[in-house]
Amino acid sequence: MKISDVIKALNCEVVQGQFENTELEGAYTSDLLSDVMANAKSAGALITIQAHKNTVAVATLVNISLIIICNSRPIPEDMIDAAREEGVAIVRTAENQFMTSGRLFALLGYT
């Protein structure tokens, strides 16, 4: 499923929209960035509440192309700028990580 299709289906607010509209093959949910580095798979989305530029650095390191920030967390400008430079999409949702993960799990056909 393309990133743009996921954004529409999850009804997310696009915060950083300059990205390549690639296919998502999976997702990883974590708020511990070392866990993301160790376990997240490439070509996926990261579901988290960690709204800072280090999240973008980790996403880039493991080839994550979409960061979904949950619980309507504020997203600082330096995170948006870093994501724009790296071509990583950032979206925000009012839902928590559990609900977002479950919905994306179903959208990607893992049910």
From TrEMBL:
User: Which InterPro entries does the entry mention?
Assistant: Ser_kin/Pase_Hpr-like_N_sf (IPR028979)
Q: Which domain of life is it from?
A: Bacteria
On assembly, the entry states: Homohexamer.
Q: SUPFAM superfamilies under this entry?
A: HprK N-terminal domain-like (SSF75138)
Protein name (database record): DRTGG domain-containing protein
Q: What is the species of this protein?
A: Gracilinema caldarium
Lineage per the UniProt record = Bacteria, Pseudomonadati, Spirochaetota, Spirochaetia, Spirochaetales
